[in-house]
Amino acid sequence: MLSAGRLAGRRATALAAAAAATALLLAPVDGSEPAAATTAATTAPAAEAPTLTIAPTDPLLSEGEALELELRLENPGDAMLPASTVEVLLTSSPIGTRYGLSRWFEGQALLASAPVAQVELPAAAAGDAATATVTVDAETLGLDGRQWGAYGIGATDGSLAMATSVVVRDEPGESSPTRLALAAPIDAGATEGLLDADDLERTTALGGQAREALDAAIDAGATIGADPLLAASAVALGEEAPQAAEAWLERIDRPETYPLQFGNADPIAQVRADAYPVEPIGIPRDDAPMLPLGAAAIGTRQPVVDATGAVLTADDLRGLGAAGTIVLTTANLDELLEGSTPSAHARVEGVDVVAADAELQSLVRAAGRDEGVAASDARARALGLLATVTRERPSDPRTLAAMLPASSIGDVAALLADLDDATFVETVGIDAALEAPVRDAVLAADDDPERDAGAELVRAALEQEAEAAQVASIVDDPSSLLADLRLSLLLALPDAGRAVTESDRVAIAGLADALTDVRHAVRIVAGSDVQAVGQSLPLPITLTNEFDVETSVVLSVRPSNALVTVPNPEVEVTLAPGSQQRVQVPIEIVGAGTVLMIAQLHTPDGVPLGQIQTVRVAARPTVEAFVAWTLGIGIALLLGFGVWRSVRKRRSGEARGDLDDRSTRRQTQPNPIIEETA
To answer: SS3 helix, strand, coil % of the chain, rounded to 5?
Structure first.
């Protein structure tokens, strides 16, 4: 028998065959002519074909209980679908195997069925949907006294492909219930920083997302994961934290609770980037000192890593095994299982993992993420699968497992309520899966083209943060500047259990804006032109500090030409929090004219801050300075002329030897006048 992880490979049967099976199933019931059956058989669903969905509002039926069904017709086409009569069918016996259940869901099973209701489905406008409900009383349904298990329900109007779902007669008798080990991550769902008081109260108060998720998880006995962002927000608010949040934190802070990454950031991407764990530096607060990370600690259990949506390698397993309990799916394993569905405890590459059944995991995720009839159908299919697994070998206890979707992206309260009501299922914490007997398994040799996408985002984010760290030396405690940026980094990373999306890439790219804000929070304010008259005077330059902490920077000033000199071109400046300060930089005027003074801020380590600013200075030296300047130019010209004259004489042959040699030669030459007289 194929495992649930490999059943998907058996689901490639042609759509025409599915339609033909549907027609054969319906032919004895509605009395359709062969031509009508042929038409139905040759009508293969296309990409824009209408689809019909059916689901019970409550998938569990007890003795004497009526069945309420929901139907929804989606019309993606550009023409209206007329009203129609839909016939509802129920299989005469429970579906006995997982293979048979999968074939029923795909519309391929030829099971004896009987009509139990007709539903008038209204017209569906183009691009819209039509819905209807019907209640089938217990007598018409005819399940009283029958065997327990998953019964198939179907619906069609003869022109549409069969819509299928299941309903479970919940009377298992002496069957050993299947244990379902669950992990329930509860995250803040935040996109920017900490939550304010209003947002925190909204999610933790009665009816709030975090409150409802916690209630359902506690009732189910699931292992709960807590987003530290919720606790950090409450701690940062201090006395202003809402009472609802305080009460919520008291309930969730228990030894078996495990911490998520801040913002439920993906640990798999961090492991693949060799950066696990990326943790907050501290808890930033407005107008108050930063709090240490330990102030927001919740729970002491090791983390549960949601790898149900990933394709793992042996290296991944080793890295994640050191991080916590790994929950993957059987789709990631290469194994051929015979007989009943095994328990979830497996050992892969020497690492103990929780192997969630791939089909069940998919249904659990859909039940939380989908809405309306689709969510009801997913819940019914999940209960039907668990009932079928229990019926496979009713005397064999087993422990399956599932990772619930994070609370911000899926509401599993209805599913957990159904599981709590089912007598053939017992929900427990994730550790129960590790207590079951272990089986050896190997990883499937599957390739994932998006494998490195998350790791690349982690590396890009950390590179940007490293740039900000260079700037942070302008304050005594660099972590006070980096705490907000690290929090933004974690919130920008992909959520655990979810593939990388374009919005994730945009969020990481957006960190550059935060880095720009850090670089430009301390900057030079553009100034007006300066009229500089005199020999030595101060050049006023205004600096601003938008940080709420004191900063220390280096101001460098240099002229664009020699008309002005700066005796001390670098000045260390300390700026008060949230202030502006005018710095007087001494300059000396040595010539008349216009000069641009170029000003730039740096960190004490020499990293540039902000943008370069220029100040136009109209320099007019005093008379003394002008005379000194003129005298200096004259001396330079005279020296230059003397050097030029000497060089010219040497080239013309007039300059030979040194002065002493020339004097000696003059003394030894004969005097022609004296010789003539003699």
So the answer is: 40, 25, 35
The model's pTM: 0.78
According to DSSP H, which parts of 32-137 are helical?
34-42, 98-105
Going by pLDDT thresholds of 50, 70 and 90, the confidence category of residue 2 is very low
Local structure of 142: helix, strand or coil: coil
Higher pLDDT, 298 or 428: 428
Report the distance separating Cα 157 and Cα 95, nearest Å.
24
Pairwise CA distance, residues 262 & 50, whole Å: 42
Q: What is the 3-state secondary structure (H, E, C) of 119-138?
A: EEECCECCCEEEEEEEEECH
Query: What kind and span of H or E run contains 612?
Result: strand 608-620
Q: What is the mean pLDDT of residues 332-347?
A: 88
Confidence grade of residue 16 (pLDDT, cut at 50, 70, 90): very low
- How far from the centroid of its chain's Cα atoms is residue 153's Cα? 39
Please report how many Cα atoms fall inside a 13 Å half-sphere around the Cα of residue 65, on the Cβ side: 16
At 571, which amino acid appears? Answer: V
Q: How far apart are CA 107 and CA 111, in angstroms?
A: 10
The bridge status of strand 439-441 relative to strand 345-348 is: parallel
3-state secondary structure of 415: helix
pLDDT per position as a tens digit, 612-657: 999 999 888 865 455 555 667 777 778 877 787 787 777 766 555 5
Q: Which helix (H) or strand (E) holds 154?
A: strand 149-156
Distance CA 160, CA 45 (A): 8
Under a CB-based contact definition with an 8 Å cutoff, are residues 432 and 399 in contact?
yes
Task: Supply the pLDDT for residue 80.
Answer: 92
Helix (H, G, I), strand (E, B) or coil at 503: helix
Helices (H) and strands (E) in the chain, counts: 22, 29
DSSP 476: S
Q: How many CA atoms lie within 13 A of 104 on its CB side?
A: 29
| Whole-angstrom distance, CA of residue 154 vs CA of residue 117 | 11
Single out the residue of 220, 593, 152, 656 nearest to residue 419, CA to CA.
220
Q: What are phi and psi of 90, to 5 degrees?
A: -135, 135
Comparing CA positions, the residue from 248, 254, 252 lying closest to residue 201 is 248
Beta bridge pairs of residue 523: 544
The DSSP H or E segment spanning 73 is: strand 67-75
What letters, b where the CB count within 10 A reaches 16 and e where it falls short, cover 270-280?
Answer: bbbbeebebeb
- Whole-angstrom CA distances from 84 to 122, 263, 511 are 7, 48, 54
Q: Which of 171, 159, 167 is nearest to 89 (CA)?
A: 167
Compute the distance between CA of residue 551 and CA of residue 553 in angstroms, rounded to an integer: 7
Measured at the alpha carbon of residue 129, what is the angle toward residues 127 and 132, in degrees to the nearest 5? Answer: 170
Q: Kindly calculate the radius of gyration of the chain based on its CA atoms and give it in whole angstroms.
A: 41
Other CB atoms within 10 A of residue 580 CB: 12
